[in-house]
Every structure is written in structure tokens, then in C-alpha cells.
Design a protein that fits this description.
The complex is a heterodimer.
Chain A (H helix, E strand, L loop, with lengths): L1 H27 L5 E6 L4 H14 L2 E6 L2 H11 L7 E4 L2 H9 L3 E2 L4 H6 L11 E14 L23 E2 L6 H14 L1 H14 L8 H9 L5 E5 H8 L4 H9 E4 L10 E9 L5 H12 L1 H9 L4 E2 L8 H5 L10 H18 L3
Helix pairs in contact in A: 4-14, 6-7, 6-14, 7-14, 9-10
Chain B lengths: L8 H27 L9 H7 L1 H32 L5 H7 L8 H11 L5 H9 L13 H27 L1 H9 L4 H30 L2 H5 L5 H11 L3 H26 L21 H37 L2 H34 L3 H6 L11 H27 L11 H27 L2 H8 L4 H12 L1 H17 L2 H6 L7 H10 L7 H23 L1
Helix pairs in contact in B: 1-14, 1-16, 3-7, 3-9, 3-13, 4-13, 5-7, 5-13, 7-9, 7-13, 8-9, 9-12, 9-17, 11-12, 13-23, 14-17, 14-20, 14-23, 16-17, 17-20, 18-19, 20-23, 22-23
The chains are: A alpha/beta, B mainly alpha.
């Protein structure tokens, strides 16, 4: 009698297990042409683009969405057996980190070298930028005029005491900006800059880039440092109040007289152990092509990396700007120093 | 006391072995993490200690204390009112009070941020109706705001355990107090409340674990806690060693809390006779007091559930056409079945462990069987990694073996499959099922067991045929809690979910990390709605 009950329980567990395994093996064994994508990007138009790629090349795109850090961790752990073919992140720092962790492989593709400008891709061909975003100063149009603004460095002046809004140092875009400061000015000056910004902050850093602009609109401060595409998102928000916030913001591209405005890219690299390497290259080439670039960049109000592609009307209305040509690999290399400096000056 | 009874060492050994096997399996991820404690932190540890650690410690402790106090007030008072008094809508309010459980606390945090945002409902009201130009702005995004949000979303843990004690176990004490001439309030304060301590502290422990494990809300509100420190040192400082070291410390701290709780409970096992399980007779107070009681019970419901829900519904209404699609339903379905399977596995394992420990004569087995509940104390992302490390070794070995011997190339069995994900969920949420089941088993006591044993009924049979039906309510509430928690789970799912499977929480996260907070509303509402179904069923059963 006892054995009977045990058996019942075991059977139940087995049954449960076999149900779940079968469904998985089925997927793993598919022999179809495919490319496995590990991506941090998750915008609806991207999906349409992938569908277009599937149709054009007959290669199925399998997508795993998570934050870049988690995806890299996953790849690290999976090692040789990793199913990942392509890694897409939304900042160059992490692509560089993936390269340093030996998660990517070097590829040579004439299409990619002609489509992507030098400073927006890795020297060794480990990764390629696909869309550009710039981190700019936005200001309340009713309180600040353009000629009061000049550079990132000038924001530490006393006239902006209690006027600046910027998010926490945990944010990768701030880390990259800080890394560019270190690269351009040296550690000491960069630390002084961070301390100066901290002194001028309207409140302790919190919330998202959008929240910073909302606080500016509400009069908590006059300036915010944000990525351009968040202005685009506010302007096209379904919420009327958010649209109003967007309309109150002026966009200023700093350091135009000098090195240019800090930019970053979202980009892709081929995974070191990519089981479908050829498909992976085809896929990245496709994303850098003129046809794809327009959709890929505009899906998130970003700038295309391919210089032949025209930018969207909204972005055009913000004007052309000079970008900091600092090699984006440097940002990744200096990321950790940036984080340590932030902690030292007490920028939360 | 068991020495009078027949004792079979052979059977005991089998049970002990099975217990050890389960504990080892569930403990493997934690063991992996704890072993890393010995390899020490990375080189950034000095930096963290100098600039950050104090902040992390202070914030985490502050949140822990503040949320404990708030959830105690928000949980115990309504629990007492609905158990001891009769007032209009009492039955409805009694189950409405559980509803915040269906709301993941990171979503409550987003909703509150939206409500008190510069373009939020509150601000609009102040500016447009009262013409106050942003002077009245409430900055919810800070440590107090975080404590507020978390307390209102977590109090049901305390409420549930307190109510179950009050309504089923306090009848005799109240009668005795009444006979001796004490008023209801005095009897509650000086007799029932102290007796309810083990139940309440059990609920409180869950709250504290949730608070310490939270990442989403704290990160969004800009509060550095121990958990955000884990993420920061892992990803920003690129030192997994330091991150694992910090999580090991956090784990030790929770272990300390659990030991404290056990010793607080001490030898006092508040087991009462079957008359004790009689429902407390409800008093009907004067009508103005009834109204007051209604208001008091409505407050936690409105602030923990209705208000954030309104915000989510508003957001959903403006983003519905963007988010809704047919694939959305498949997301709902995968979240649902993942949670169902996890809930089932968790109650089976918990029940077995508790039952085995109860009958074991070995103190080691008894202690050992409580270890897997530690999983709840560890942040999801750490568990995910703790699972990845050992299972990858196994998976790679398995792949090589099948390739070599069977010439059959199979994928990973655990990593990136549903098995790995559910295993991780079970490690994480076992404690959630464990506590109500343990409370239920303790309440039922040993008398039926002993009677059945004297009649020669074997242990397996006693477990399946006597204890499972007797503890039906405890098992169901355990399953319910696990189900809802799995629906809400995020960081672990992000790391371990297989290809082609999308869950509601991941979908919501994607929108939020995109700064499209308003688009999180639709998946959020589905998490809440699916979470409501079992809550509704359970409350029906409790009333029946």
C-alpha cells in the first residue's frame, strides 16, 4: 500500500517533467536557418524589421530580450555552448566590455566598414554601432536662452546653482558621459566637473531622463542633461501633459566650439561561439543597410550611423551638430574609472 | 512524547535521505553562493567600504524597520477588526484587503511615481483645481516614499497570518476574558495580540525578505540598498566576486533574522484544542463605530490597491492600442502556467519537508529541512546565477555524454529551458509556501497522527490521506501565495527564461526600462487580474 502511494507521486512528478522537456527539445532540434539574437533593444518597430529580414533572407530571428549585463552574463556562463549569434546593446561601453570578456569575435565585412564610420565601430571588428544618440542639455525655453549655454564644463558655474537636473550615476549614459570627460580632460578635472555638477543639482539624482525634463517643466530647475530621443518620446507621448513638457524644452548641443557633443551608440557584435556565424553577419549587415537604418534609428528617435541615410524630420528640426569623435572603445575602457569617480564625489 | 509510539528506524532513514536529497538540490544554488564567500570580495571592496557601504546599510535597515512598523499597523488592525467585529461590507473588505498582493511592488512604485509626478493626477488636481503652482508637490521618489509604497504593497503578508490566527484561534481566549470581565479591546491587547506573535512575526519575516530583496522599486526611486549594491558591484564595477560576497552577507543576515524568529517563538507552541479552531463570535458595535471601522479597513485597500490601480487603468487606457495584440494572450498564458507548475511543486516540497521534519527524531534533519526557505531571502538575480553555475556544469556534461555515447546532440536540459526556470522559481519561493503550511500543520497538531499511528497506518498514507485533507487550507494558501509571487517575479525570469517564452513581468519591465512607464500598464493589469482569480477563489473557500 505504501509503495503504491509513492509510485503515484513519482509518476506525477515524472509526467510533469516530461511535459516540460518535450516542448523544449522540439525547439532546440529545429534544423531551419536561423539567427539567435541576444538584445537589450525592445522597440516594436525593431520586430517589424526582423520580420522583414526573415522574409528577405529566409532566416528566422530568435530574440532573447534582457538587459545587456544579464545577456553578457548568460553568454559567459553558456560558454562554447551558447546559442547566441548576435549581441545587441544600447551603449558602446557594454559592447567594449563584451569584447574584453571575450564574448565577441572579430568579423570583416566590407559592407559594414563602408556603412559604419570608423569612430562608431571597434578597431578589430568585434562590434559595430548601428544607431547614434547624443547626450545633450535641455533647457526651459521660458527661463533660459541658448546663449547662456556653451559646454558641459560650463554647467559647473555658480549661475546654475540648484538649477541642474540629472539622473543617478548608476545610469550607463551618465557613466559614458563621465568616461568621455575622463578621456578628454583627465581624471582630476573630470572629478572636479562631477563635483561641480553635484553642487549645482536641483535635487538628489533620481528617476529617469523623462522625469528630469518633467521636473524642469515644473520649475524645480532650469536645465537637464538627457539623451535626445527622450525629448522625441515626450513629444509623441499619448499623454497630453507629457507632450506639453516636451514642447517646453529647448535642445542645446554642447561643446560645438570644441570637441563636439558626447554621443553613444547602440550596436551589435557577433558572438564568439556563434553557431550561425554567416547568418549573424548577414543580419548585422542588413541592420546597417540604408533601408533598415531608417526604420531602426527612427524607431527610437535616434540618429542613423550610416551617413547615406537621411534623418527623420523631428531630428532635423533640432539641427545638425558636431559630434565628439572620441573612439567609443575608450568609453568602455574608462567605464569603471567613471563609476569609481562618481562614488568618490558622492554622486548617487 | 513520541517514545510511547512505535518507531521504525528503517523508515525514518528513508525519509531522512529523501529530505537530505531535496535540501541539497534546492540548496545547491545557495551553497554555490555561500562558498564564494570564502573566495572573498573583489578589489573594489575597499572602495565600497569607504564610500558606499554605510549608505547601503543605513538605507536597508531603515527600510526594514519602517516597513515592519507600517505593515504591522496596516496588517494587524484590519485583521482584528474583520475577525472580531461585524460591520457593513465586512466580508467584502476582508478579502479586498489581500488584493495588494496581486500588485508587484515595483509596479506599485511606478504607479505612485506617476501619481505624484509633475504631470501626474495629484499635481494636476492641485494646479488646476486649487491653483497651487507646484508648491504642494510631494516628492514620492525618496526613501520615505519607498517605505510607504512597499508597506502598502506588502502588508497583506502580515494581514493574512494575523487574520487566520484571530478568526480561528482566539475564540477561547476571548471567551475567557469576557467571563473575567475584560472588554474586547483589553482582551485583544493583553491576551490575543501576544499569542498572535508567532503568526504575525512569520508574516513580518516575509515582508522583510521582500524589502531586502527588492531591486526594481529601490533603483527607480534612487535609493541605494544592499540589493542595488549587489547589482552595482556586479555590473557597474564589473566584479561578480564582490556582488556574490555582498549577497552572501545579506543571506547571513536573513539567516540571523530567521534564527531570531525561531528563538522568539521558542518552545511555546501555541497549539490549542479543536474548540480553538471555532470562529470568533463577532460583536456588532454602534453604528458610528461601525463606520469608523469601515474607514480604517478601507484605507490600506485604497492606498495599496485602488489608487495605483486607477493610475494603471488610466495609463492602460491611453496606451491600449499600442500594446494590445494577439500575441499578448500567449504571454498571459505562459505566465499563468509557469506560475501554476511552480505553485504545485512548491507546496509538494514544503509539505514533504515539514512533515518529514515533524516525524524525524534527528535534530539535524529538523534543522536541515528549514534551510531551503532561505532561498526567499536571496535576490532573484543571485539565485539565477547560483543556479547557472552548477547546472551548466551538469548540462555541458550531459550534452557531451549523449553526444559521445548516443551520438545524439541535445540542447541543454536545464539551462534556458522551462525546467531551469521552474527550478529557480521553486528555490526562490519555497518559503512562501512553507510558512502557511507550517502554521497549518502546527495548528492541526499531532493528535490525529498519533491516533492513526496507533491504528497502524503507515507514514506515507498518513501524510496523503490524513494530513493533506486536514491542511487543505494551508496548502491552498501556500499555493496561492507562490502563484501570485511567480506571476510577479522579474529578475530571475529575465535571466533564465527560455527562447520564445515571454512573461507579463518581463514585458512590463521592458517598457519600464525603456522609460515607457505608461505602457507597462497593460501587462501590469494582467498580472494583477490573473493574481486576483486565485485570491477570489481562496476567499470564497475561506468563507464557505
Amino acid at each position: 500500500m505504501k509503495k503504491y502511494s509513492v509510485a503515484k507521486l513519482c509518476l506525477l512528478v515524472l509526467l510533469l517533467n516530461s511535459c516540460t522537456t518535450n516542448s523544449n527539445k522540439g525547439e532546440a532540434q529545429k534544423q531551419q536557418q536561423e539567427v539567435n539574437l541576444y538584445t537589450h533593444r525592445h522597440y516594436a518597430p525593431d520586430q517589424e524589421l526582423f520580420a522583414q529580414f526573415e522574409k528577405e533572407f529566409g532566416i528566422k530571428v530568435n530574440v532573447v530580450n534582457a538587459s545587456a549585463d544579464e545577456l553578457m552574463l548568460k553568454m559567459e556562463n553558456e560558454g562554447v555552448q551558447s546559442p547566441a549569434d548576435v549581441l545587441i546593446t544600447v551603449d558602446a561601453g557594454r559592447l567594449q566590455r563584451a569584447k574584453e570578456k571575450d564574448l565577441l569575435q572579430s568579423i570583416s565585412s566590407e559592407i559594414l566598414t563602408s556603412n559604419v564610420p570608423d569612430h562608431l565601430r571597434d578597431v578589430d571588428g568585434h562590434w559595430f554601432g548601428l544607431t547614434k544618440r547624443s547626450r545633450v542639455i535641455v533647457y526651459a525655453k521660458d527661463r533660459v536662452t541658448k546663449d547662456q549655454l556653451s559646454t558641459y564644463e560650463a554647467l559647473t558655474e555658480d549661475q546654475w546653482l540648484g538649477k541642474i537636473l540629472i539622473r543617478s550615476s548608476g545610469n550607463i549614459y551618465n557613466q559614458s558621459l563621465m568616461a568621455s570627460m575622463i578621456a578628454n580632460l583627465g581624471e582630476e578635472a573630470a572629478a572636479q566637473w562631477a563635483a561641480g555638477i553635484l553642487k549645482n543639482m536641483a535635487r538628489s539624482p533620481k528617476g529617469s531622463d523623462r522625469d528630469q525634463m518633467k521636473a524642469v517643466a515644473a520649475g524645480l530647475g532650469d536645465l537637464a542633461i538627457v539623451n535626445t530621443y527622450y525629448v522625441g518620446k515626450l513629444l509623441t507621448s499619448p499623454d497630453s501633459m507629457e507632450r506639453a513638457v516636451g514642447q517646453q524644452m529647448g535642445i542645446f548641443f554642447p561643446n560645438q566650439e570644441g570637441r563636439g557633443t558626447h554621443i553613444n551608440v547602440s550596436g551589435a557584435g557577433v558572438a564568439k561561439y556563434a553557431p550561425n556565424k554567416a547568418n549573424a553577419i548577414k543580419f548585422i549587415e542588413f541592420l546597417s543597410s540604408e533601408a533598415a537604418q531608417e526604420i531602426f534609428s527612427s524607431s527610437n528617435f535616434e540618429y542613423p550611423v550610416n551617413p547615406k541615410v537621411k534623418i527623420s524630420p523631428l531630428l532635423q528640426s533640432w539641427g545638425a551638430f558636431k559630434e565628439d569623435k572620441l573612439s567609443l572603445s575608450t568609453l568602455g575602457a574608462l567605464n569603471k574609472s567613471a563609476v569609481l569617480l562618481f562614488d568618490q564625489v558622492g554622486w548617487k | 512524547m513520541f517514545s510511547f509510539f512505535y518507531y521504525n528506524a528503517k523508515i525514518d532513514k528513508k525519509w531522512s535521505l529523501l529530505t537530505i536529497a531535496i535540501v541539497l538540490l534546492l540548496g545547491a544554488p545557495l551553497l554555490t553562493i555561500l562558498l564564494k564567500l570564502f573566495s572573498g570580495p573583489g578589489e573594489s571592496w575597499a572602495h565600497i567600504k569607504e564610500y558606499l557601504l554605510l549608505d547601503y546599510l543605513f538605507n536597508s535597515l531603515f527600510l526594514m524597520v519602517a516597513c515592519s512598523i507600517f505593515t504591522l499597523i496596516l496588517g494587524v488592525i484590519p485583521a482584528w477588526l474583520v475577525s472580531a467585529y461585524s460591520f457593513p461590507f465586512r466580508k467584502l473588505l476582508q478579502w479586498l484587503l489581500i488584493l495588494p498582493l496581486a500588485f508587484p511592488n515595483y509596479l506599485t512604485a511606478y504607479a505612485y511615481a506617476g501619481l505624484f509626478d509633475y504631470s501626474g493626477i495629484y499635481e494636476r488636481m492641485m494646479v488646476q483645481i486649487f491653483n497651487l503652482d507646484h508648491i504642494s508637490h510631494i516628492d514620492i521618489m525618496g526613501i520615505w516614499g519607498l517605505a510607504w509604497v512597499m508597506s502598502f504593497s506588502l502588508y497583506p503578508y502580515v494581514y493574512l497570518s494575523a487574520r487566520s490566527f484571530f478568526s480561528h484561534q482566539s475564540h477561547r481566549q476571548m471567551s475567557a476574558a469576557k467571563v473575567l470581565g475584560a472588554g474586547r479591546f483589553k482582551a485583544f491587547y493583553s491576551i490575543v495580540l501576544p499569542l498572535a506573535r508567532p503568526a504575525v512575526v512569520g508574516g513580518l519575516l516575509l515582508v522583510v525578505m521582500e524589502v531586502l530583496g527588492d531591486y526594481g522599486s529601490a533603483y527607480y526611486y534612487g535609493v541605494s540598498t544592499y540589493t542595488t549594491a549587489i547589482f552595482r558591484s556586479w555590473f557597474a564595477l564589473e566584479e561578480p566576486e564582490t556582488a556574490v560576497y555582498l549577497s552572501a552577507q545579506l543571506c547571513m543576515f536573513i539567516l540571523f533574522l530567521i534564527v531570531m524568529e525561531r528563538s522568539l517563538r521558542g518552545e511555546k507552541k501555541y497549539q490549542f484544542n479543536s474548540e480553538g479552531s471555532q470562529q470568533l463570535i463577532k460583536k456588532t458595535p454602534k453604528s458610528h463605530i461601525q463606520a469608523m471601522f469601515m474607514v480604517v479597513t478601507i484605507i490600506p485597500i485604497s492606498l495599496g490597491f485602488i489608487l495605483p490601480l486607477i493610475q494603471m487603468i488610466y495609463w492602460a487606457s491611453i496606451t491600449f492600442h499600442e500594446v494590445w495584440s494577439t500575441s499578448f494572450l500567449s504571454i498571459v498564458w505562459s505566465s499563468f502556467y509557469l506560475s501554476m507548475i511552480t505553485a504545485f511543486i512548491c507546496i509538494c516540497i514544503s509539505f514533504f519537508l515539514i512533515y518529514a521534519a515533524k516525524w524525524s527524531r534527528s535534530l539535524i534533519i529538523q534543522r536541515l529541512s528549514t534551510l531551503p526557505i532561505l532561498g526567499y531571502a536571496v535576490p532573484g538575480v543571485v539565485i539565477a546565477v547560483g543556479i547557472m553555475i552548477p547546472t551548466l556544469i551538469f548540462d555541458k556534461w550531459l550534452v557531451n555524454m549523449t553526444q559521445y555515447y548516443l551520438n545524439w546532440s541535445m540542447g541543454f536540459l536545464i539551462n534556458g529551458t522551462i525546467i531551469g526556470l521552474i527550478f529557480a522559481y521553486s528555490v526562490r519561493f519555497l518559503a512562501v509556501a512553507y510558512h502557511p503550511i507550517e502554521a497549518s500543520i502546527q495548528k492541526i497538531g499531532m493528535r490525529f497522527e498519533q491516533a492513526a499511528q496507533m491504528l497502524g497506518v503507515q507514514r506515507w498514507k498518513r501524510m496523503l490521506q490524513i494530513n493533506i485533507p486536514l491542511n487543505k487550507l494551508g496548502l491552498l494558501s501556500g499555493a496561492l501565495l507562490v502563484f501570485v509571487d511567480t506571476m510577479k517575479e522579474l529578475p530571475l525570469t529575465l535571466l533564465l527564461k527560455p527562447y520564445g517564452i515571454m512573461t507579463l513581468s518581463v514585458k512590463a519591465f521592458e517598457y519600464a526600462s525603456d522609460e515607457r512607464i505608461s505602457e507597462t500598464a497593460l501587462p501590469a493589469l494582467f498580472i494583477i487580474m490573473t493574481g486576483l482569480i486565485p485570491i477570489f477563489l481562496l476567499s470564497r473557500m475561506m468563507n464557505a
